[in-house]
Inverse folding.
């Protein structure tokens, strides 16, 4: 039984021009055929035995609330503990990329003080990884340190949010540098946006630091590196962060690699998502499917190559879908050709349409677009 | 004061389904997989919630463990509710001992106290081993309009099949005038679907009378209903039109599954209205993953499958693995079946967790198979060793 609280930050965004997150918080973006990006963090926390999870909400929270609901799918509909929706203080403005705005956490200090758990795990909502948090927490406890920061070697993420850790030979964190402010080109240890805090220490940091306005939890840790023991933990498995359409496309394509798919989905720690009760998928006589991830509820009567197909998608006769991601309830008409395309939910592609894009820059069709 | 329930459902799921042979060796027939990701009991439970019935008593007896685990407290069907909800009702003992459920009527008799707590006006009796979609509300409305004591759902069946069913004769107002269980020479084609709505006070006293009769087999079709009819109660038929299948034998089970393939099956699992819900909460399986050399034609495939070989005219439940070079044709594979590299499986029903080892051949056509339709069945958890050859129509058991 792990005595830990979990918290997930979702109140952040990059510039609005990143169209993927124009209509919904990035953490609520559908991903991997039946999931949303947030599911990875939610499941990692729950799989570690954490039964109390607070989600710091973004301003455009509707899709997120719709998805998590009362937390039933993650077994977080508890009398004792369970899921807490934590309102943020200020909405993330388009230029604000602080993931862990300290003010948002201070505003929800009661969530942190009402429980007597020793540890708080804080993470974000747009990393794709199956992380065994239980063993990270165990390591944190064994070392007797006050904070553990998880990092991934060589992880490339958006320069606006990237932070690198400088470690000494014992793995203790000596400095934290943000790519947006400082030179980090020689540093390889990218912060994976997972903190393990001693709860009382976190409460103390939040309540005693003055002028929290523009600070991030990572800044609080950085300013206090000399006063406390901050250890690091290297995560060696598969991990990517999704912000842009091209991140989204390339991380989706990673799931078609058998080794990555097996690591993320086939281990003992399952990624959990909201149940939709779709029937199984039906393949008809003209189906030609290779290298694909296909969800329940689809009807397939065309060619699918190297693509991710979400629930309840209808692929009509002789259509051809390559290197693409089709979100829930899309319909692709007869004889259509789709290549390097990301279709958002419910897009209807009329018969005989051709949509093609170059590999590096996939074509993204937002929700509600009429073709 | 407690509110009176308009109608509660009692769902009989204790039957073994012995004609399904080793497929039901460790689970009662209502727990059997159907159409890939469903189990037979899903149809009744979904019909109940789609009809607004929020109180269901589920009477279990034969091998209930897997079924209980699957249905749980009914949360998949939103039946985990304090106003009614799903209740599992196994046989029990009291101060004066107890008995197994001796028949359908005796099972309800033993649970009269359970029903009394809800003080219902009507009780819907269902058997959880049929495949159909039905709005019980229409039947309940008719039942009330006609002020019936009992309403029995009936299906018009072909004359040559009539002797397999309980057959009813009716007058112009669909009032039942005669009821014969499995008649040799049927005089009507209206067959009972085993779905009854009773006024609770009528059923309650009928059950007490039936229990006191030492000659009774305590069966609704054989004893209770003929007696109520003879006693001049108001019995009406509710005519049902649509898909309804009894999947009690290997052949009928196999062909009912296969009918789901194709463009317009008579049972539409894809329509948004009256969706059939299965409990997929627990498995957490990812979408299906199709490998670079896979070939899939005319098949139904569920989440969590990994397909590297060929699948044709088949139905695959969640978590099935089909290895490189393996070929699956005309088959039904239950959850977590493994078809290893190079194996061939033809016209076979493979039980949960069973394995066809590398290069094994299952369902080799023979001139006179043991089963007339040549359907091979493999028991749950059985491993067919690599290279083994199994003739069609064989029943492979542990």
């Amino acid at each position: 039984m792990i005595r830990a609280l979990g918290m997930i930050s979702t109140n952040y965004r990059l510039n609005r021009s990143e169209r993927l997150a124009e209509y919904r918080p990035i953490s609520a973006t559908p991903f991997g055929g039946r999931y949303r990006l947030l599911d990875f963090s939610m499941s990692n926390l729950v799989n570690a035995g954490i039964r109390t999870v607070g989600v710091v909400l973004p301003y455009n929270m509707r899709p997120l609330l719709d998805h998590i609901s009362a937390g039933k799918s993650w077994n977080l509909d508890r009398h004792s503990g369970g899921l807490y929706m934590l309102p943020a203080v200020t909405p993330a403005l388009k230029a604000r990329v602080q993931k862990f705005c300290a003010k948002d956490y201070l505003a929800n200090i009661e969530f942190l003080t009402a429980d007597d758990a020793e540890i708080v795990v804080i993470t974000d909502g747009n990393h794709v990884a199956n992380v065994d948090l239980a063993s990270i927490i165990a390591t944190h406890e064994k070392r007797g340190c006050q904070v553990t920061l998880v990092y991934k070697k060589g992880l490339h993420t958006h320069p606006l949010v990237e932070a690198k850790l400088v470690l000494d030979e014992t793995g203790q964190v000596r400095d934290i540098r943000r790519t947006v402010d400082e030179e980090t080109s020689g540093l390889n240890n990218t912060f994976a946006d997972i903190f393990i805090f001693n709860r009382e220490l976190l409460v103390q940091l939040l309540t005693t630091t003055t002028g929290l306005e523009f600070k991030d939890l990572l800044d609080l840790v950085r300013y206090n590196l000399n006063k406390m023991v901050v250890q690091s933990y290297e995560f060696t498995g598969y991990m990517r962060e999704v912000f842009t359409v091209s991140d989204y496309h390339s991380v989706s394509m990673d799931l078609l690699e058998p080794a990555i798919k097996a690591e993320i989905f086939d281990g003992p720690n399952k990624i959990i998502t909201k149940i939709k009760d779709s029937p199984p998928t039906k393949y008809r006589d003209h189906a030609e499917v290779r290298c694909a991830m296909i969800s329940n509820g689809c009807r397939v009567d065309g060619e699918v190559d190297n693509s991710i197909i979400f629930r309840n998608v209808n692929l009509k006769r002789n259509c051809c879908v390559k290197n693409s991601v089709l979100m829930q309830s899309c319909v692709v008409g007869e004889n259509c050709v789709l290549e390097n395309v990301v279709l958002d939910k419910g897009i209807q592609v009329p018969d005989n349409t051709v949509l093609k894009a170059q590999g590096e820059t996939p074509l993204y069709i937002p929700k509600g677009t009429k073709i | 004061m407690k509110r009176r329930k308009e109608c509660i459902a009692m769902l009989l799921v204790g039957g073994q389904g012995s004609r399904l042979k080793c497929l039901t060796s460790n689970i009662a027939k209502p727990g059997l997989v159907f159409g890939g990701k469903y189990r037979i009991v899903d149809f009744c439970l979904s019909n109940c919630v789609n009809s607004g019935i929020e109180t269901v008593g589920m009477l279990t007896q034969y091998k209930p463990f897997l079924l209980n685990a699957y249905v749980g407290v009914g949360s998949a069907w939103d039946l985990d509710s304090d106003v009614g909800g799903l209740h599992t009702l196994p046989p029990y003992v009291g101060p004066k001992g107890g008995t197994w459920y001796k028949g359908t009527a005796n099972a309800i008799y033993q649970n009269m106290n359970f029903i009394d707590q809800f003080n219902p006006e009507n009780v819907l009796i269902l058997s959880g081993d049929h495949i159909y979609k039905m709005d019980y509300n229409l039947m309940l409305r008719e039942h009330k309009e006609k002020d019936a004591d009992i309403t029995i759902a009936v299906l018009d069946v072909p004359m040559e099949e009539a002797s397999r069913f309980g057959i009813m004769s009716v007058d112009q107002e669909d009032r039942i005038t005669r009821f014969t269980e499995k008649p040799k020479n049927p005089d009507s084609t209206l067959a009972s679907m085993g779905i009854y709505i009773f006024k609770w006070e009528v059923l309650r006293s009928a059950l007490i009378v039936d229990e006191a009769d030492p000659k009774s087999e305590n069966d609704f079709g054989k004893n209770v209903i003929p007696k109520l009819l003879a006693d001049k109660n108001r019995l009406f038929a509710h005519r049902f039109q649509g898909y309804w299948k009894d999947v009690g034998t290997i052949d009928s089970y196999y062909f009912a599954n296969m009918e789901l393939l194709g463009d317009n099956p008579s049972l539409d699992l894809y329509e948004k209205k009256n969706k059939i819900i299965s409990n997929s909460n627990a498995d957490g399986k990812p979408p299906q993953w199709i490998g670079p050399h896979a070939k899939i034609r005319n098949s139904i495939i569920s989440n969590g499958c990994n397909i590297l070989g060929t699948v044709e005219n088949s139905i695959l439940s969640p978590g099935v693995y089909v290895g490189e070079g393996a070929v699956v044709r005309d088959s039904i594979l239950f959850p977590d079946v493994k078809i290893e590299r190079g194996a061939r499986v033809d016209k076979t029903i493979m039980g949960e967790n069973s394995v066809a080892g590398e290069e094994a051949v299952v369902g080799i056509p023979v001139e006179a198979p043991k089963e007339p339709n040549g359907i091979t069945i493999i028991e749950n958890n059985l491993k067919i060793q690599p290279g083994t050859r199994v003739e069609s129509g064989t029943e492979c058991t542990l």
